[in-house]
Each structure stands twice: as C-alpha cells, then as structure tokens.
Amino acid sequence: PIAIRREDYAAPGYWIDTVDLTFDLDPAKTRVLNRMRLRRNPDAPIQPLRLDGDELNLARVLVNGQGASFRMEGDQLVIDGLPYAEEGDFELEIFTTCCPIKNTKLMGLFVSEDTFFTQCEAEGFRRITYFLDRPDVMSTYTVTLRAAKAAYPVLLSNGNLVEQGDLPEGRHFAKWVDPFRKPSYLFALVAGKLVAREQRITARNGKEHLLQVYVRAGDLDKTEHAMNSLINSVLWDEARFGLPLDLDRFMIVATSDFNMGAMENKGLNIFNTKYVLANQATATDADYSNIESVVGHEYFHNWSGDRVTCRDWFQLSLKEGLTVFRDQEFSQDLCADASARAVKRIEDVRVLRTAQFPEDAGPMAHPVRPDSYIEISNFYTVTIYEKGAEVVRMMQTLVGRKGFEAGITLYFERHDGHAVTCDDFAQAIADANPESELARLLPQFKRWYSQAGTPRLAAHGVYDAQNRSYTLSVVQSCPPTPGQPTKEPFVIPLNIGLLDANGRELPIQLEGESEVTRGTRTVVLSRAGEQLTFVGLDAEPVPSILRGFSAPVILDFDYTDAQLLTLLANDPDPFNRWEAGQRLGLRAALQGIAALATDTTPVLNDAYIDAMRSVLRNPQLDAAFKELVLTLPSETYIAEQLDVVDPQRVHLVREAMRAQLATALFADWEKVYEENHDTGAYTPDPTSSGRRALAGMALNFLCLAARASGDTVWPGKTLQRFKDAGNMTDRFNALNALVSSGHTLAAQALARFHAIFKDEALVIDKWFSLQAGASDRGGDILPLVKQLMKHPDFSLKNPNRARSVIFSYCSANPGAFHRPDAAGYVFWSDRVIELDAINPQVAARLARSLDRWSKLAEPYRSAAREAIARVAAKPDLSKDTHEVVTRALA
Ligand code: HT7
Ligand code: ZN
Fold first, then answer.
1. Residue 598 banded pLDDT, cuts 50, 70, 90
2. Cα–Cα distance between 684 and 288 in angstroms, integer?
3. Which residue owns the Cα nearest ligand 1 atom 6?
4. Does one domain contain both 421 and 486?
5. Total-model pTM
C-alpha cells in the first residue's frame, strides 16, 4: 500500500455539479443508476477522469447518452476523451450493482437487521457508485429509492421528500432532493421497517422544523432523551454561535451495526444505537451523558463539517476538532453550576490524558493535521478529535469568549459552502481579533497543527524574600515523534493563580506591571524558556499552574506533598484541586511500583488517606467532584509515567491502593452510601447522577473491604440493591461492585442480569464488557473471555459486541491482558487477524491495543513484538491493519 501525502494535494480535474441516483434496493443485488453532470475544472491540468470505486460490478458507462470508452486501472474507472472546458458540461451515466448483505465492512451500503444503511465517510461512497470520492467535490443530489414496500416501508435520504408512490409488484418509491451542495461522504440512505418519534419546533427566527428520531418498533420508548438532546442542540447553536438549523426536516436514525458512534450526513444523521437509545431501566447516567454529547456533536457538524467542509482528509480536524470543542462547550453550558462544568472539564481532560497522550508518544503519533496516511480511517483518532478540540479551546482562551464567537461568525461568512483548510479556520479567528495574542503569534501558534507530540513544561519556582518576589522558570520541550526528530516552541496559554500557605488566593502582579489582578491570570508562553516574576509577595506562594488545563501539555513541577495537600484542600480552581489529588495518588503509585521489588508495605500514607477523608466529608463539595477526586489515576495513566512498564506491577500496586482506601475509609464509605444512594425519581441531571456515582463508588469499596475482612453484610446488601434498583445506573453499579470484588454472589447476579435483559442488545453488551474488563485474579479473565466468545449471544460481526468482549479485555483491562505467559497477546493476534477478514476498521482499532509495546518490561516486550510481527506477516492484510502494525514495528 502507498502513502498519500498532504503536500501532493491537487484540485480535481473535474467538478460534479449534480448527481441523480436511482437505487433499486435488494439485499443480494442492489442496482444503482448514477447520472451526473460534470465539467472540467479549467484551473487544473487536462487529464482523464478517474473515478474511485470499490467492490462494485460495473454494467454500463454512457457519456451524453453514448457508449464511452473507458478502462479500469486498479479500482479506478478511467475515462478519456471527455469534452473540454469550453464545450461546457456533459452527462455521465454509470450503472453498477453491489451486494449489501455481504458487506461486513459496514462501509458503503450495508444491511443491518433487515434495514439498509449507508456509511460514506471517509471513502465509502465509492462502494456505492463510481465517483470523485473526495471532500472538495461538492454536488447537489437527487435520490430516488425503490424497494419492496412491505419489507422496506420507510425510505429516507438527505434533504426534502419531494415525491413518493407505489410501483408494480408490491414495490414503492421515494424521491429526495437535498438543496445543499455536499461532498459524497455526506450522502446517506436508509430503508427499512422503522418508526419515528417526531417533534416540531420553532426556531428563534420563527422558522418551523420537523425533528425525527427513527428506531425499530420496540425502541420508541427509548428515544425521548435523544430527542430532547437534539432540541437542546438546535437551540444552543443558535443562541451561542448564531447558527440556525437550515433544513425543514432533520432526521436521526439508529442502527445496531456501526463502526463508530454516529455520522453527520446532511439532514439524515445515522447513529449507533448506543448513542440514541436510553430509558432508565436500560441506560446508565454515562449513557445519557454520552447520548447528549454525540447528538450534539453530529448536529453541530451541520455547520462545522457540512456547511463548511474539509478540502482534503488531512484537514479532518478542521471539522472534528472544532465540533468536539463545540459539543464540549454545549455540555458545559447545559450544566447548572460551576462545579458541574468543572466535572465535565475533568472528564474531558481524563480522556485526553489516558488516550491521546499515549497516542502522541507512540508509533501512531501524528500532528493534528497529519502529513501522510495509508488508510484515512486510521486517522479518526483522539489526536484529530480531542487534541484538535484543545487547539480550538486555546484559540478561545487567547481571544476571549466573545472574540472567539466573532471569529466563528467570520469563518462561516467567509467559507460557507466551501471545502477549506485548518489554516483558513485559524486565519478567520485571528482576523476577527486583530489585537489578540493569537493574531500576533499566529504562524507560531499553528505549530499545534503541524507538530506531533505532547509538549512538556518543566517549571521551577524560587522565592526571593528580600524583593518579595517569586520567579517561576518554565522550560518547554517536545519529544521526537515518527518523522519529526526536533520541535520548535509552541504558543502555550498558561492559566496561573497563587495561593498562600493557608490556601487563600493571592493577588497577582507581574514584575513591571502597575496593575494587580485577582484570581486566574493567563500568561502566553512562546519561547523555549521563560521566567515569570510575581511581585508583592510576603511569603513563598503555592503556585496553581495550568488551571482548567489551559493547554494540552504535561506540567512537571516539583510540588512538595504539603503544597499538593494545600491545593487539594483549597484551590478555587476545581480542575487543579482535582489535579493535586491525582498528583498525590500518582506519586504514591510510582513509589509503590519502585518499592514492590523489595517490600509490600502499604502504598498510601496517612496524610493522603486523611486528605481523601476530608474531601469525602466536605459539605461544600458536590458528590460528582468527590467521586472524581477519590478515583485513582488509571493503570494506563500510571504506566505512561514510567520508562519501562511492568503491567502486572502497576495492576498490583493500584489494586493495593484501592484496597487500602476501602478499609481505611470504611466508616466514611458507609456514611457516603447511606447519604447518597437514594436519589428519588430518576433524572439523569449532573447532581443526581453525581450522587449515584459516589454511592456506586462507596458500594464498590465496601464490597472490596468485605473481601478482605470476610464480612458478608455489604455483599448481601449489594445483591439486594442490585435486585431492587429502580434504574440501570444503580443496578449496574451494584453488579459491578460484586463482580469487581470477586464475590461469590457475583455469579447469581450476572445470571439474573442476563435473564432480565436478554432482549436488550445494549445491556447485554454491558454484561459482556463488565466480565471481560473485570479485575484479574490469578489469570482467570482470559479463559472467561474465551468462554464468553462461545456464548450464543456473541458475534464477531457486530462491532458493539466485538468491542464489548475483545476490546474490553485487550484495550481496557491491562492487568488481565499483559500476561507473563503471553497468552493475552496470542489471543489478540488471533482476533486481529480474524476480524480483519470481516471488518478492517474494527480490526485496525483492535490492533492499536499494543501501540505501547516498546515500553514494556521483559518478558512482555518480546512477546508483544512477536505477536505484532505475526499479524504483520499475514498475507492479504487490509490497508487499515497493515498500516497500524507496520508503524508499530518501525
Ligand atoms: N464524522 C464521523 C466519522 C465516521 C466514520 C469514519 C470512518 C468510518 C466510519 C465512520 N462513522 C462515522 C463521526 C463524527 O465524528 O461525527
Ligand atoms: Zn465528528
């Protein structure tokens, strides 16, 4: 396979103005008639027309109604001798067939539970018809769908329904016209037996819209939350950014077979059921919150992605980073108070640090705007999405919230209806704020788009009693990444506050300034090393650096334990308050890991336990925040801090820390549970979900403590709680407490859970995932995973189910996966190979589980490498998996 390079971008040789598609839908043989009007691009060199195709059967090619001479070059259909630009446009008609029922890749046209769906991003449209399948070719689409009426009563495509009616032999048709020009990746169709929840809304400008959420007949009672999330999204985008809904009809359709979370096809979003369906009996608070974000995310793409799209796939973060930023802001703005907003921010940062930081340090590291790829599907990554969102957030920090909104307005004014680049976006934000630091430093700021790797800030503070000043020296660096041995300094907005030894916020005055400010100050770093001198200080302050996680960097500051305890107890910035607790936990874990070779003394000291007790007892703090503070850094995050990782040691030490928290705070956990477990009538709002999360955590620790003491009371209570729970969050938390403490009651609870929810696919996913992700005791998880794969409910073809078992084990359960006997890796390589033949995108994701193999201690390292090499040696590997494993071995 060959790499595609960003620098090779060239505008297309032809434009496709209109596309008229007629589908005769049949699972075994769907006929696609594609009539296009094309013209040469006068600005491009004269060239033959090369149309992309993949797994299509070609029956006919006509140019202006006449048979045309064409040839195949690989997968491309090449046509010469087409009219020159001066001769005007011409018609091209292509007739093909494809086989949706055999489409296990779930790209292009496929069948899921007797319903037709499409997935065209990034390069799936070429699996439907021959086309210039690239995002800078934008066309107006007319689509006619024809199918058997009884089997496929609902026929949907983008835009407006303009005609429908019956056809002979029990068939019917629907004709859709999308008034907006769009790239092929935003095309969609759906045909099947579906029902819809409908809601008419009137926007601020008085326009009426019909919103619809389509699902299978039995699932209508699980669509209320998705619909409410959609309504909130429409209102929010208009209120915050002045971006209205531009369609009469906006549809969401759910499918249980989907490679990703959802897809923003113009006016016809297609969703994984996981991000649509929820009622209190089947969905957890986390599910409710994810649905809100994903519904928002796809809706916000209607502007950031659909109205203004990407010139080429290297610019993917233009739409994805911006849209993640927008969905994060949406979820924060829906929060009732600052504490709930901080909780959301902490959760987002946790994802970034546990998933994106490792990616940025591993073999798949790439800039937010990559320079090359073999398979674009591999670049739907946490770097493009989450780091991309942080880049947008830094722009907002540099120009202010109002300035950012002005920048967004300018961006859409300038580029509406066009396919543009990340440069165009940054330029618009800067141009709308000509006096800002962003405008001043724009070329340097854009290094965030071009340089991969996580920058590191080494900060060091010195107090000068004589001058009553405190100097913070900050040196930035960024490690080499594949293809980028050296890095230039980044522009880093650093939010800083200073506290006194009692934890009170100090006024801030930088040397040379006349002004004194209170609270957080944003300092903009742009050089490799800088010194910030704060004056007017009577004693050495405790610096609170990187408040709110103002930049996606690693901050090294040699805090004393006492300073961290001060920040944990007092920092007015909730993010850094949480961060102080994480630093203390991490410090203990690293010490524990280093000490494990010689002794096994308790890992957590009394000061840490006391601090955690104070957090739990603090009436000023919300339950959700307490739950985050009491959650120890994950095994993955701990491992990232080590040069050489023994995953078993990491697991053992973290488990020891958890056991210590369980027993040392036993009485507090009992109280916390009693005070928080009754949240009344179920609503998924942040306050009550925070209380459920904390009560769930308490139950978990109480069962863990019971394991050590032999107590049977709390496991018994937990089983009862599991049986009586009025919502899935409480029920699942109780089940999890029994499973993760390894209690004997877990087996009957699991059996009962399966029996109750056997017909709820998303709940059965949870059932699989909980078991495959459970804490390993003596190597028991791998045999269990193998057994789960033999369960009648298991299927490798369904991505949600495959993820619930295989990914939960290989990617989310390091203590069970990294076995000294290498059996976890052998299992992994077998599954990657097996999945690759079915669904390369899912296989390539799984292949990423061993990205960090080179950091592993022996014997893990050699065994992991061998497993990767085994996959790489497999002939006929997909481009997707090939790219991941060859980069891992490079
Ligand atoms: N823009 C969507 C990307 C997507 C996708 C990409 C590759 C293969 C399957 C896919 N399904 C959806 C998702 C989003 O960011 O909104
Ligand atoms: Zn997206």
1. low
2. 7
3. 121
4. no
5. 0.99
Ligand 1 pocket by C-beta < 6 Å: which residues?
A: 119, 121-122, 259-260, 262-264, 297-298, 301, 320, 377, 380, 841
Pair 425, 460: CB distance under 8 Å: no
Residue at which a domain ends, from 528, 558, 588:
558
In angstroms, what is the span from residue 874 Cα to ligand 1's centroid?
27
Bond preceding residue 122 cis, omega within 30 of 0: yes
Choosing from 523, 558, 593, the residue where a domain stops is 558
d(CA 91, CA 530) in angstroms, rounded, equals 62
CA 373 to each of CA 420, 423, 821, 869, 880: distance values in angstroms, whole numbers, following the listed order: 19, 20, 35, 21, 10
**What value does the mean pLDDT take over residues 66-94?**
97
DSSP codes joined into one string, 493-522? EEEEEEE-TTSPBPPB-BTT----B-S-EE
Query: Structure tokens of 227?
Result: 């619909």
Question: In this predicted structure, what is the pLDDT of residue 204?
Answer: 85
| Pocket residue to mutate for ligand 1, from 127, 260, 290, most atoms within 8 A of Cβ | 260
Assess whether 292 carries a catalytic annotation. Answer: no
pLDDT value of position 564: 98
DSSP 625: H
Q: How close is the Cα of 140 to the center of ligand 1, in Å?
A: 22
Residues 356 and 495 in one domain: no
Catalytic hit among 121, 264, 292, 298? 298
> Which pLDDT band, with edges at 50, 70 and 90, does 307 fall under?
very high
Q: What is the CATH number of the domain that holds 407?
A: 1.10.390.10
Please tell me the distance from the alpha carbon of residue 888 to that of residue 890, in angstroms, as a whole number. 6
Taking CA atoms only, the protein residue closest to ligand 1 atom 1 is: 263
Buried b (16+ CB within 10 A) or exposed e, 207-218: eebebbbbbbee
Structure tokens that stand for 129 in this block: 């018809």
Domain match, 136 and 256 both: yes
Directed axis angle between helix 606-617 and helix 574-595, to 10°?
Answer: 150
Question: Residue 122 C-alpha to ligand 1 middle, in angstroms?
Answer: 7
Q: Which ligand is nearest to the CA of 318?
A: 2
What pLDDT was estimated at residue 600? Answer: 60
CA of 182 to the centre of ligand 2 (A): 16
ipTM: 0.99
Same domain, 467 and 437: no
- Ligand 1 atom, smallest distance to 380 CA: 6
Question: Residues lining ligand 2 (ion), CB within 5 A?
Answer: 320, 323
Specify whether the CB–CB gap between 249 and 212 falls below 8 A: yes
Secondary structure of residue 859 in the 3-state scheme: coil
What is the domain extent for residue 861? 775-890
Q: What is the mean pLDDT of the chain?
A: 97
Q: Does residue 197 have a pLDDT over 80?
A: yes
